[in-house]
Amino acid sequence: MEDETTRSTTNAAENERGDRVLDAGALRALAHPLRVKIYDILSQYGPQTASSLAERLGESSGSTSYHLRALAKQDLIHEVDGRGSGRERWWERPKGGVSFANAEAIKTPSGRAATQIVMGEFFKLRQEQLMQFIDRGLAEEEEAWQDGSMISTATARLTPEQSAELSRKIMALIDDAVDNYRNQTGENVRPVTIRADLFPLPELED
To answer: Which ranges carry the HTH arsR-type domain (predicted)?
Structure first.
């Protein structure tokens, strides 16, 4: 399965891997809770149809089909070549990383609002998945998966330059795993979400 990297804070000027930085039009197209969910499912679980997405999301296939077309207009997704028919079209997310952080887009009120909606919905979904794992996975997953999982948080005192260097090192590890295992199949292979958060804490008031 493919889970291409989605970044929220990568500066376009420092985008060494050539990730697609979403422009204002793509951000506005994605700025809808259901579209973020559809995009996320395609990212984590691979190609889907409007019907399979409707079943997963509790929506009508007409609704998911409409939102799929809206995402396709901005090249956020595309049809899978050679799969499906006119009535059963398969959709996938293009290969490659994506960054929500567009320095130009957030300079305008509409671009900033779209970015906030997309990032807010994206991390809301990630938080829900984390809480589901804490609530059920810790007890129900087999021991091998429990041993192979990690939930960690830490605090360090850094300069902006040190924070940027740490970010690059963490992303290099994640990118390496994605590059090596994005197409892996076989026994006991499942999609795994890899999340890294690194941001400054607010100053305490005196």
So the answer is: 25-102
Closest of 3, 44, 40 to residue 174, by C-alpha: 3
Quote the pTM value.
0.82
Q: Give the 3-state secondary structure of the chain.
A: CCCCCEECCCCHHHCCCCCEECCHHHHHHHCCHHHHHHHHHHHHHCCEEHHHHHHHHCCCHHHHHHHHHHHHHCCCCEEEEEEECCCCEEEECCCCCEECCCCCHHHCHHHHHHHHHHHHHHHHHHHHHHHHHHHHHHHHCCHHHHHCCCCCCCCCCCCHHHHHHHHHHHHHHHHHHHHHHCCCCCCCCCCCCCCCCCCCCCCCCC
Please compute the mean of the pLDDT values over residues 111-133 and round it to a whole number.
92
For residue 26, pLDDT over 70 is answered with yes
The label of the residue with tokens 């149809």 reads: 49
Contact at 8 Å (CB) between 37 and 125?
yes
Between CA 89 and CA 84 the distance in angstroms is: 5
Domains and CATH numbers, the chain: 20-130 (1.10.10.10)
